[in-house]
Amino acid sequence: MRPGHDRTPVHAPGWLPGVGAVSYGGDYNPEQWPEEVWAEDVALMRDAGVNLVSIGIFSWGLLEPSEGVYDFGWLDRVIELLHANGIRVDLGTPTASPPAWFFDAYPHTRVVSRDGTVLGFGSRGLVCPSSAEYRRAATAIATQLARRYGRHPALALWHVHNEYGVPVSEDYSATSAAAFRTWLQERYGSLDALNAVWGTAFWGQVYRSWDHVGVPALAPSVVNPAHRLDFARFTDDALLACFVAERDAIRAESPGIPITTNFMAGACHSTDLWRWAAEVDVVSNDHYLTAADPRGHVGLAMAADLTRSFAGGKPWILMEHSTSGVNWQERNVAKRPGEMARNALSHLGRGADAILFFQWRASRSGAEKFHSAMLPHAGTGSRVFREVRELGAGLAGLDEVLGSRVEADVAILWDQQSFWAQDLEWRPSVDARHRERVDAFYDRLWRDGITVDFAHPEHDLSRYKLVLAPASYLLTARAAENLTAYVAQGGTLLTSFFSGIVDEHDRVHTGPHLSVLRDALGVTVEEFLPLRAGERVHVALAPETGAEVPDEGHEGTQPPAPVVADVWADDLTLAGAEVVGTYTDGPAAGRPAITRHRHGAGTGWYLSTRPDADGLARVLRRVYRDAGVTPAGLPEDVEVVRRRGAEADFVVVANHTDKPVDLGLSGVDLLTGETAEPGRGALTVAGGGVRVVRTPRA
């Protein structure tokens, strides 16, 4: 009998079928090794506490050695070996890497870059997503896998493709051009409508035939930004359609088994993950530290919060991260002792109920042979493997954390389509980049110990005390109405510069800039006043009245020190707002810089420049008071996140310093069993250490 044939999987209680524990493991690529190594791998997995592995992700050329001819023998044996040892399977479809025979048979499916270069075979992910031949072949291999293994008792999850949009997403081939025209016809209906929304009267770009509409390849000057924006949307739709085709083929053969694909939240800019999250059964994410960033743990936290937000607060899977260094950055810094556990448990603290790595055994060959692994080249006697084993033992005691939720009072707006538009050419300042502002705001909230959700501007925001809009350049009328209603109903909104400028077609909103948020913010922008490189401006803050905590730039009877800012200034026109900060120099000297406006039951703030880190902290302290948000007062680089359970809470503390800290924690550390009772001592967190503390329900 072939594996999985006529078997009915037994679904034990848990968020994945048959999974009632925190999942631990990673990508397993046995096809890279002689078969006699497999038994050793599985024995070491059991020793390390591994209970879930992802397999088959890059094995298309082995599973289908020629078109329509399949060989599942080796995969049968791998799955049976894993199942016999109690290790669950996340079965991948290998469609991120079509085999050599595919490109030989269908050479026109190769990706064409924006400059017209045809990209060759020998890498991964290089296929035209609009290709009918690719869609057919990918769906066929997914169907075959689902028929063979879809009811196998080892199967816990389906893993479609791998990191959609990476390493390339946009394809400028003739196939994509034809598909793009069809997409535009379905979206706009007529050339008149297309010409109107693209503003083709500018530079004489009016189209009279659909055949004349092409992809926005390199041109003598800047290409129409509305054209570029729609091509980004089309590309996202094409990639998503590939996923949906495979997903639906699998569902037909493997009912009841959840299906995912691994996101790269915040790292891949070609996918609108709000849309993707609605199409997967469970959200999963890959995350790798930026080695050049000495405070990469903040970026990790942001990616985790993004992923949890895409998941709607439900449990999610950390599908990949690294045990130590990676291989694809300029300087692949190794993780220090204890850093792997902090990284893993920081993800868990922010909602992940599965902790997986790339990969199980380090590769001897190929492009990623210097990528760290759970079982490194140095073997079982290595520090990395000892830490892998220790982490597995610790996670084995965290079953009761499963299903608990992270709750946040603050949200940062995240709209990938706005980011696509903002970062195109010929904006008022090359320094006004969306990601820099989002990172700066998130970093400040992280330092203040405030847990953050991310939200789309059109989402229901009513549960948040404070909403921050660091980079909302593109704001639809619906989104603007939503934000205005949020303020009117009692929310606090802080909007940063270069926001609310254009609609969904990258057309400037009528009236002065920021008019779409005039009611919420009480201010409009008459003119942008971007600054020269290196130029600074200063903002004098108005004295606070009735504040329990004075501005930290205030000493004695002296007025507060000015806020130092750069990159941007606005010439503002007040429409009911009060002035909180005034430019003392620069192109807007004497004019309002920071405003506050009461609208209905709430408050709208506008920040028209880019303050330095200290200045942003001082502004946010005032905004926090309006919103009723209290910073946690944590020591520098100590991270605390609370997951709320039905009967208890779970506080995850990661100490990213080399000195012990005492936060007055009481409860049971689920990693060590150590207990501290209120008034009878507290749980100290060692330098570089991490704790997962069960406490009474807050």
Q: Any overview of this molecule?
A:
It is a single chain. With 698 residues, the protein is of the alpha/beta class. A 10-stranded mixed sheet has the order 12-11-13-14-21-20-19-16-17-22, with helices on both faces. α9 links the parallel β6 and β7. It starts with 22 loop residues before the first strand and ends with a strand.
Give the total of domains.
4
Regarding quaternary structure, what we see is: single chain
Helix count equals: 17
Under CATH, the homologous superfamily of the largest domain reads Glycosidases
Rg estimate, integer Å? 27 Å
Uncertain residue ranges = 1-13
Task: Classify the beta-strand content into a percent band.
Answer: 15-25%
- What is the global morphology? globular
The strand count comes to: 29
The CATH architecture name of the largest domain reads Alpha-Beta Barrel
Mean pLDDT: 95
Major beta sheet, strand line-up: 12-11-13-14-21-20-19-16-17-22
Describe the largest sheet.
10 strands, mixed
What's the CATH topology name of the largest domain? TIM Barrel
Termini distance?
Answer: 53 Å
CATH class of the largest domain: Alpha Beta
The residue fraction in helices comes out at 25-40%
The assigned structural class equals alpha/beta
